[in-house]
Design goal:
With 255 residues, the protein is α/β, with parallel strands linked by helices. It folds into two domains: 41 residues; 205 residues, TIM Barrel (Alpha-Beta Barrel), CATH 3.20.20.370. The protein is built from nine helices and eleven strands. The strands form three sheets. Strands 2, 3, 4, 7, 8 and 9 form a six-stranded parallel beta sheet that branches.
């Protein structure tokens, strides 16, 4: 009987140990499962676009200085390239002549918010008011209301993306960051961009970064030599039914 009792206790202990291990696996797996499910339903901006042609976009954020805007316009004109400029409302108020020059040169002037706020910290109504104010200021100069929005600091959440969408704005991120705001040498900026782009890429620059005007000609020449067509973001985006996958890549629905 004593041996039988030892056996029973040993068996029971083994069963309990197995159950404990199984519960640990379940506990470890559950957060990942929930995270994956949440990611599937999350609202994402467009980081890049699945294209069947060699097409990409160059974008410039304009929030602070204005030293190089006309120089950038002149460089882009030299190569007959049209870009997208995401402009903050207070920048448009301060430099209306530059906003007008961008528009008249054929570039897209889209919104980068009204005051470069941290949108993740705003309420729904604050987001609505901020986006409308920024769009109003751009439209007052160009006569065209923005249809694209880039969130300041690249910060967003479901509320930000959905609220922008409700206002008729597609939220745009980027998949290639030039890091020009770090005042990298022109050669390094050029390498970062030309080694990272792919079909459907959206490249991030800034209008007042120190070495961007120096780097831009080499970047454009390299991309054109590779057969890329450089277009504004609105032209890069897909029409009709589409989805934005978990990487932020816009794809044709069902594709």
């Amino acid at each position: 009987m004593e041996e039988q009792g030892k056996y029973n206790r040993s068996f029971l202990g083994s069963v309990m140990l197995a159950l404990a291990v199984a519960l640990l696996f379940v506990a470890a797996a559950t957060p990942s499962f929930i995270s994956a499910a949440a990611m599937k339903d999350r609202k994402l901006p467009v980081y890049s676009v699945e294209r069947d042609d060699k097409c990409l976009s160059l974008t410039f954020d304009a929030a602070w200085g204005n030293e190089d805007t006309q120089t950038l316009i002149d460089i882009l004109a030299r190569y007959e390239v049209k870009a997208t400029f995401f402009v903050v409302g207070f920048w448009a108020e301060k430099y209306p002549e530059s906003v007008r020059a961008l528009h008249e040169a054929g570039h897209e002037v889209m919104t980068h918010s009204d005051d470069h706020a941290h949108f993740n910290q705003l309420t729904h109504q604050q987001i609505v008011d901020n986006l409308n104010a920024g769009c109003d200021k751009i439209e007052a100069v160009t006569g065209v209301r923005p249809t694209l929005f880039r969130a300041p600091y690249g910060e967003y959440n479901d509320l930000v993306v959905q609220t922008a969408e409700d206002l008729g704005l597609t939220t745009i991120q980027w998949d290639v960051d030039s890091l020009d705001w770090k005042d990298l040498p022109a050669g390094e900026i050029s390498r970062r961009v030309t080694e990272s782009v792919r079909d459907g890429s959206i490249v991030l620059f800034h209008n007042a970064a120190l070495h961007t005007p120096e780097a831009l000609p080499e970047i454009i020449e390299t991309l054109l030599s590779r057969g890329y067509r450089i277009v504004p973001v609105s032209e890069l985006l897909l029409r009709g039914d589409y989805v934005v996958d978990h990487t932020g890549r816009m794809r044709a629905a069902g594709g």
